[in-house]
Amino acid sequence: MRDPLEEALTLQAKLAELTGALAAEIARPASQRDNDALRRDWAEACRHRPKLASLFRKLRKIKAQQNAGPGLRQPDSHKQQLQETRLLGKRLKLWADVDVLVNRHIDPNPVPLITDRDENISDPALTQIYQALHRLANPNTQAPDAADHGCFADIPMSIQSFELMIQAARRTLLALGRSSDLRFLDVGAGGGTKVFAASRTFDHCDGLEYDAGYAAAAAATLALISPDKPCRIHQGDGLTWTGYDQYDVIYFYRPLRDDDALAKLENRIISLARPGTVVIAPYNTFLDARKGFACAMVEEPLFITGMTQSEADRLRTEAERVGCEPPRRSQSFAFDTGFWEPLLNAASFRL
């Protein structure tokens, strides 16, 4: 008679192979997925569910018998069996949710990237909280040298509008097949509140700020309210800074007053950013009258570097078939997700 733990581990290894194949298909753009293969491979994975559940019940029965025995020190093999049984139970509980997740990737319906432009339905309480955070994060007045340099003072952005743009940027990156180690930069970060807001969506979030007082306030605020997030503030001049190629998303909201200086900043960001960088510029003069520039509009106010407009249009179509909420990755669970890990890490919809 085979050891049920050995059988369970062997079957889970087989499931990991199947979910790996499913993940590879899900990671492709929606228009290029083989939906018949998705359905077939998922049905094959589900075929093993009853056997795995049966093995789990056997393992639980063995655990109950061991617990009923004399209170002697349990050997390491029993400890391993206990741990694997607990993990298997947690993984089995995810099955129904993963079923929904897989089926959402089969020919998903398109949803516009910017899903709501109506500020009138904004949550007043959320707006008030964000404005209070903005004032608390940076109580400083603008430094004279920053004003002389042509910088705008720290101005709050509507948190609702910012959230819509951030989610659209994330969906665009997922449509490009990029789902991990995503890096965000706010140029003209002020007190750092947008850096903090973006940290819910991206893995690493930084700010670049010319005003030394603003930058110091932002660093202190982020250290206080986001100590577990890799958020940083760089104090420097965006017109001379060289680190733009380190980011997947770059946000700026007209940080300079002078049109010529602003154009220089735009040119520097676009020329140094990597191809495929999402640029968020929510003002209506960005890239005006600069045809042939290596940047195209995905959906106002989102742009992407290194693409033609026809390529950006196709990307928008793909991004519209990505989920509107940040997916839940395997590392966000409090336990080892095992054979579900490939699917969770490739998903573009939320579990």
Structural commentary:
There is one protein chain. The protein has 351 residues and is an alpha/beta fold. It folds into two domains: 4-108 and 338-346, no CATH class; 119-319, Rossmann fold (3-Layer(aba) Sandwich). The chain is 48% helix and 9% strand. It is built from 13 helices and seven strands. The chain has helices at 4-26, 35-46, 49-68, 76-93, 95-104, 124-137, 144-148, 159-175, 193-198, 212-225, 259-272, 309-319, 341-346, and strands at 183-187, 204-209, 231-235, 249-251, 278-280, 295-299, 302-305. Strands 3-2-1-4-5-7-6 form a seven-stranded mixed β-sheet. Helix 1 runs antiparallel to helix 2, helix 3 (49-68) crosses helix 4 (76-93) and helix 8 packs across helix 12 (309-319). The protein is elongated. The mean pLDDT is 89.
Set down the secondary structure blueprint.
Blueprint: H1 4-26, H2 35-46, H3 49-68, H4 76-93, H5 95-104, H6 124-137, H7 144-148, H8 159-175, E1 183-187, H9 193-198, E2 204-209, H10 212-225, E3 231-235, E4 249-251, H11 259-272, E5 278-280, E6 295-299, E7 302-305, H12 309-319, H13 341-346
Helix pairs in contact: 1-2, 1-3, 3-4, 8-12
